[in-house]
Amino acid sequence: MASVPSLAATVHQRVADALSAALPEAGAADPLLRRSDRADFQANGMLALAKKLKSNPRELAAKVVEGLPAGELIAGVEVSGPGFLNITIADSAITNTLAARAADDRLGVPYAPDPGTTVIDYSQPNVAKEMHVGHLRSTVIGDAIVKILEHRGETVIRRHHIGDWGTQFGMLIQYLIEHPAELDHASDSAGGAEGEGEAAMARLNRLYKASRAVFDSDEEFKARARDRVVALQSGDAETLALWHKIVDESKIYFQGVYEKLDVEIRDADIVGESAYNDDLMNVVKELEESGVAVRSDGALCVFFDDVKGPDGNPTPLIVQKSNGGFGYAATDLAAIRDRVGKLGADTLLYVVDARQALHFRMVFETARRAGWLPEDTARQLPFGTVLGKDGKPFKTREGETVRLVDLLDEAIDRASAVVREKAQDLTEEEIAERGAQVGIGAVKYADLSTSLTRDYVFDLDRMVSLNGDTSVYLQYAYARIQSILRKADGKRPVPHPELPLAPAERALGLHLDDFAEILASVAETYEPHKLAAYLYQLASLYTTFYDQCPVLKAEVPADVAENRLFLCELTGRTLRQGMALLGIRTPERL
Ligand code: ARG
């Protein structure tokens, strides 16, 4: 395993060195190197620098050119305009760098220089409730970020902070006590994790509806349900056993959805709100003793100068309600103590809907004041809303929230139709498998290719389109590459650095070389959409290359053909790795 410095990084360093040699008083100056249409790279840094030091930018640029070492890296450099440098890389340098990437299992991508421990809170559905479209983004984004960070060598601890605690359990458990057979019905499961999950959810829904009906109509039942909450919180054994039963039933359901969504959620990482129950009194005590929180009308509150309601009065974070009950804030505070104090996190991430931004701002600030959370450690990765075609939050025609499974099933159906239409030699079973991979990939890609904070319209027509910025386009590009490699008898193609490169080969090659830098920036900024954009551009550059540079035609000289096959293979591996980091499959045949 050897990390390969990118050409951009190497050129940047060379120009920076030449620049500080030409202008020692500027110190370590940034040459501002970027990719350019004029040449391979353009450096603009001389302009501002010359201006600052009152010298002539063209003269400075000319000195930098003189100072650049001659060698195999740079084929040409010229001063242009008011003092830019246009730099052209030697073809052989491009091929050699790509050869080094291809020789490495990680495609030359380095590990982070100083990896730490990140605790990431994502995919947090609620027990006894359906997963809906709102849980899609948290799950898909969280899964991608976990993969991207782990690939960099970060230690990642996943936390699924499921809603498994609260007053509603009093009602459900009390009903179960009075109707012990309610969850025991013979399973009407269609088999498989998904069928079992759906059957579990059906039972939970029935329990929920039945208990709700009694709760709303029978005052005495309501009182018994309230007492049951107290029994639950004080750890009564019978109550806890039934609570576990409900939680377990929900987990069966969640796993069915996760399987369909093709994400791995491990049981040990599901640490719900209930897990922090025993620490809530300590949280309250410490906050109250330190004066971070104060009693106000009986409730324990934290106030902020800059958080006010519409009436101009401060809106506090309520840690404990006046009736002694705890809400979401107390649990999140206890979780921070656990994650920083016990799990040793140096970064806390929360993949949660943007509408909860104020909650997290107040929770983080409270934890900081209490001394539980070092500065700049916690960060919400807020995401926007999934919209319907009418531009409003996505609802069914009846105005209800959309069940996540229904939406996924529809995507799979639509994708299967696309796969079937294009299928040449696929069996029914293969069509079903590919349909799922394409459909789920389409949903994930549409989500991840949008920057996190933006809302987006859930439009399956667009998502499963073969053209345009879709995963289907990327998956077909990958499958086409594999088909070419199969035709070329499967030997690993050897690069030929001595050959000149066509413009489309250079463009593809330079983009391939950028992979490591993109991954580093995506991991540092938590912006998966940049990886999606990179992969889309990669597939587009590949398409142009494939149109302009025949690979398997008889008239192409053998060494040229092999060099092109080499580019095909490296493109395929880069696409597969990049897609895998987004949680998207790349079938070998489509
Ligand atoms: N369970 C909540 C929901 O479904 C999201 C929980 C977010 N995570 C957290 N640590 N508060 O909306």
UniProtKB/TrEMBL annotation:
Its EC number is 6.1.1.19. Gene3D superfamilies: Arginyl tRNA synthetase N-terminal domain, HUPs, Isoleucyl-tRNA Synthetase, Domain 1. InterPro entries: aa-tRNA-synth_I_CS, Arg-tRNA-ligase, Arg-tRNA-synth_N, Arg-tRNA-synth_N_sf, ArgRS_core, DALR_anticod-bd, Rossmann-like_a/b/a_fold, tRNAsynth_Ia_anticodon-bd. A motif ('HIGH' region) lies at residues 125-135. It comes from the Bacteria. It catalyses: tRNA(Arg) + L-arginine + ATP = L-arginyl-tRNA(Arg) + AMP + diphosphate. GO terms for molecular function: ligase activity. Pfam families: Arg_tRNA_synt_N, DALR_1, tRNA-synt_1d. It is an enzyme of class 6 (ligase). It is found in: Cytoplasm. The keyword Repeat does not apply. Residues 474-590 form the DALR anticodon binding domain. Its main location: cytoplasm. Keywords: Aminoacyl-tRNA synthetase, ATP-binding, Cytoplasm, Ligase, Nucleotide-binding, Protein biosynthesis. PANTHER family: ARGININE--TRNA LIGASE, CYTOPLASMIC (PTHR11956:SF5), ARGINYL-TRNA SYNTHETASE (PTHR11956). Monomer. Belongs to the class-I aminoacyl-tRNA synthetase family. HAMAP family: Arg_tRNA_synth. This is Arginine--tRNA ligase. The lineage of its organism: Bacteria, Bacillati, Actinomycetota, Actinomycetes, Kitasatosporales. The gene is argS.
